Amino acid sequence: MRKKTLSICLIAMSAMLLTGCGSSIELTDEQNSMVAQYAAELLLKYDIRYDYRLEDMNSITGELQFEKDSNLVVENTEMVSTEEDQKSEDEENVTTETPEGGEEQEVELTELFEEGIDVSYSGYSIVSRYPEDITDIVAYVEPRNGMKLIVVEFMLTNTSEEQVSLNYLDSERSYRIILNDAKAAVPMKSFLEEDLSTLQVTLEPMETKKAVLIFQISESLEDDIQSLKVSVQQGEAKNMIILKE
Q1: What mean pLDDT, rounded, does the chain reach?
Q2: DSSP letter string over 44-55?
Q3: How do residues 218-234 score in pLDDT, each as one tens digit?
């Protein structure tokens, strides 16, 4: 926590020095973008919830990586078992997707959000940066070296007759992408306004806004995608979105 606070203070002090008193330094759009990107990466570095560990599909992970020998490896973490290895493990060591206290219930995607908010999946893309066009863009997301981004898009519409304020920063709703029914990952967190996992927005009646979830995937795995799904879960209620099958 001290490191995170110190980092924020250093960023703030740097901003003050750049603006100065009486003799300000004007930054180009590219320099402003670099400062914003550095600040985002620095904050995420000290976010204890920003987890990059690789495990089996029933575990919370931060990225999907693939090696030709079919072993999944990530720096500073243990090697992850394949799906066949997982099946051979003792049942006591295998976690399930069913939350404690009840069985999962498959529901419509919209039912996992506020009343009056219609949510629909609108497509996905695999890109090297998001947004791809960063002209006049201050904040954007880039993957680690050797990785690409899977961007899953949603459309949120306020179908009510009143203004609705959404704040998903501390939401207990969880998201996971599932690859080939074997490996899973949680989305990255970003400073993007349209990041669904941290969305804070007010929608006017019948107003529609695009939102995204962003995941990381190894470049070498892109051509080996056989199936791709995203699960959205709130308590025991869950919806499975089929991206590719």
Answers
A1: 74
A2: HHT-TT------
A3: 998 999 999 999 999 99
Q: 68-77, 86-95, 139-148, 232-241: which has the minimum mean pLDDT?
A: 68-77
Q: Whole-angstrom Cα distance, residue 152 to residue 171?
A: 19
Domain ranges of the chain: 2-45, 83-244
Plot region of 238 (φ>0 → left; ψ -120 to 50 → alpha; else → beta): beta
Q: What is the DSSP string of 148-190?
A: EEEEEEEEEEE-SSS-EEEE-TT---EEEEEETTTEEEPPP--
Strand partners for 212: 153, 195
> Token pair for residue 26?
């004007």
Q: Find residue 200's DSSP bridge partners.
A: 167
Sign of CA dihedral 16, 19, 22, 24: positive
Least confident of 22-26, 145-149, 208-212: 22-26
Architecture of domain 83-244 in this structure: Sandwich (2.60)
Amino acid making up residue 229: K
pLDDT value of position 93: 34
Q: Is 145 helix (H, G, I), strand (E, B) or coil?
A: coil
